[in-house]
Amino acid sequence: MKPSPNPSVLLAVMVLLFAAPAFAQQNHPILLGTAWYPEQWPEARWEADLALMQQAGVHMVRVGEFAWSRMEPEEGHYDLDWLDRAIAAAARHDISTVIGTPTAAPPAWLTQKYPETLRTLEDGRKDQHGNRQQFNWANPKYREMARKIAEQLAKKFGHNPHVLGWQIDNEYNEVSFDAATKAQFQQWLKARYETLDNLNTRWTTAYWSQTYSAWDQIPIQTGYGNPGLLLNWMRFVSDTWRSYQRNQLEVIRANVDTRQFITTNMMGWFDGFDHYTVAQDLDMAAWDDYVGQGHLNPERNGAAHDLTRGFKQKNFWVIETQPGSVNWAGINNALAKGEVRAMAWHDVGHGADAVSYWQWRSALSGQEQYHGVIVGSDGTPVPLFSEVAQIGKEFEKAAPALANTTVRSEVAILHSYDSRWAIQWQKHNKNYDPVEEIASYYAPIRAIAQSIDIVPPTASLAQYKLVVAPGLNVLSDAAAKNLMAYVQNGGHLVLGQRSAMKDDDNALQPQRQPGPLGELLGGRVDQYYALTDSVPFSGDWGSGEGGLWAELLSTRDADTQVLMRYGKSNGWLDDQPAAITRKVGPGRITYIGAWLDPKTMQQAAKWMTTTSGVKAALGGVPEGIEVSPRYGAQGKVFILINFSKQPQTIALPHAMTDVLEGGEKQSLTLPVYGVAVVSAKKD
Ligand code: GAL
Quick one: which atom of ligand 1 is closest to the CA of 328? Predict the structure, then answer.
């Protein structure tokens, strides 16, 4: 008989399998990197830059992403030897390379020879050479050219031991409104709806005589148009970015070692395409994390990290971030001394396995001369260099503790692009921002739970004690089924404002909100109101007031409990339910119809987490201390950062190893922007 495996060994192996980075990052599990553009400098200068990078603890350079004119100076004549030499030179300094395909910046000869590859703006004008992203992402000729250069790169560097992975293109963004793309969209609609009758019905085109009798009558609409058409244009945009990416990804994958990852750089809350669609084919998610004007908002930025981690539901990279300041904000202030380091650790706390600065050194000319850098145009360190070097040292020190660790959460927030778009197109209150709505829930819940996942509504939810859907406006049948099963199996689902109003075609659900979830709730939204003035409310979460939006709720079932009621306002809302909840077997479903002020939201968050049995990952800490746990086979690591305005002392629940400073600590004192990394063995 086969001996049964030891369950704790099995668990350890499973944790390792789940957490281990699939790609070659073993030597430096937490990487410090920088964007480097060797093509902008004489080769004789490379050595000095690389030596400085090594001094700063940089172990990864990101190269190539805008160097197409250097890689292919004329059509079909490829020159990649300089890149080979740059990669080898970096390797001599213990620096690995990530190669970016250069397709965000097509060379002038390409645009001149194939003008059809230029994108058409919405007003019908053609874009032009001289910036970047001027290409048409749906154009077959552009794709042919992009595939060829990606293939050349993959063939040349696919087995290079110093190449860690690939970034396809750069920040997918601009789309094209030309006639050929419109025809592709119409074909895409045909594949989705099969018949015009079906499309006409699902979009209610009887309204305003929109009925289509031929596919080529269907226009492109953005912003104001038929809700079904608007949503499907964005889905087409997303699918077209996915196929644009696949076009390169396939030739890369066919020519490179499996240890080399393939990613692209996303942009946090940017909603120009559905990131869940585009991320499907990638090995790992990565994003460009810029503060711009002002200072790091750990909740807002932390949520963007958690969002990015949710694209693949595993660790990710911060593949670009600002060394101090940017050049594109209203006021390009520098982050305060210590803030760049705090931000780097904040990234790692939320599941980043690499933090890479954009950029090493500014080009002498070009559009970004004023952007933050690590060394100046003279090639010597700027003041921030020493802080970056400190990060480098600390990443090395913490590497053994952080290797193969990942984030795990008891709470999930549901996020969907369909819902965000649907609300953006019909805000009904011009000040209504669906990302703000997510943030209003995220901040107080994260402060209690100390970890949150942000995932799409069709993700597997079984591991969560609490699932919050702040603005799930569009609810597909698959998502509805998933959420119902979650509640029936014992989960607690909290729905926020504007939930479950629309179906998969952005049409109104035939039932009042929350549509198919109303049965479980034993109640519904009787009416929604856009507000000019705040409305008061009171109940189990104390009393407060909320602006923007209020939903008048009603209960149908005797066991649906009213948690909060509106006070005196427009008459309709007076004394009516503002939040209701119902126990459903072992689970629970709650609906919050008011925009809660921060104090009331804090009480609501306490109630949500307590009712669901959610525990703090570490335990109580002073306000302004961000705690982020990462878990591995050997135990837990906590990253603590002081984002408050004064020094703070934190009492740990038990003695832990101080990873950065050494020794066992029972308490920690952190200055403003101070960071501690502590670890505890598995208990
Ligand atoms: C990013 C872009 C980089 C650089 C940077 C400046 O959006 O990917 O190439 O332009 O902004 O902040």
Answer: 12
Residue 629, strand partner residues:
638
With b meaning 16 or more CB within 10 Å and e meaning fewer, what string describes 245-259? Answer: bbbbbebbbebbeee
Tell me whether strands 60-63 and 664-670 are parallel, antiparallel or unpaired.
Answer: unpaired
CA 501 – CA 510 distance, rounded (Å): 9
489 C-alpha to ligand 1 centroid (Å):
45
Cis ω on the peptide bond leading into residue 367 (within 30° of 0)? Answer: no
Give the distance (Å) from ligand 1 centre to CA of residue 60. Answer: 18
| Rounded-to-integer distance, Cα 283 and Cα 26, Å | 17
Give the 3-state secondary structure of residue 417: helix
Which residue in this structure is represented by tokens 């609409």? 221
Of 171, 267, 288, 325, best ligand 1 pocket probe by most atoms within 8 Å of the beta carbon: 288
Pull the structure tokens for residue 381: 């360190």
- Ligand 1 binding pocket (C-beta < 6 A) is 170-171, 288, 290, 320, 326, 358, 368, 371
Please tell me the distance from the alpha carbon of residue 343 to that of residue 321, in angstroms, as a whole number. 9
DSSP string, 31-82: EEEEE--GGGS-HHHHHHHHHHHHHTT--EEEE-TT-HHHH-SBTTB---HH
Q: Are strands 648-658 and 664-670 parallel, antiparallel or unpaired?
A: antiparallel
Calpha distance 441→302 (Å, rounded): 13
Strand, coil or helix: what is 311? helix
Query: Rounded to a whole number, what is the distance in angstroms from the first to the last CA of the chain?
Result: 32
| Token pair listed for 186 | 């119409």
Q: How far apart are CA 457 and CA 495, in angstroms?
A: 12
CA of 102 to the centre of ligand 1 (A): 14
Residue 166 alpha carbon to ligand 1 centre in Å: 17
- Rounded to the nearest angstrom, the gap between the alpha carbon of residue 536 and the centroid of all alpha carbons in its chain is 34
- Classify strands 261-263 and 163-167 as parallel, antiparallel or unpaired: parallel
Non-local (6+) Cβ contacts of 2 within 8 A are none
Backbone angles phi, psi at 293, to 5 degrees: -75, 140
Alpha helices, DSSP H, located in 68-139: 68-71, 81-91, 108-113
Residue 160 in tokens: 């290079």
Distances (CA, A) of 121 to 118, 176, 225, 453: 10, 6, 18, 37
Report yes or no: 345 and 353 within 8 Å, Cβ to Cβ.
no
Block mean pLDDT (10 aa), the chain, length 683 = 40 41 69 98 97 98 98 98 98 97 98 98 96 97 98 98 98 98 98 98 98 98 96 98 98 98 98 98 98 98 98 98 97 98 98 98 95 96 98 97 97 98 98 98 98 98 98 97 98 98 97 97 98 98 98 96 97 98 98 98 98 97 98 96 98 97 97 98 74
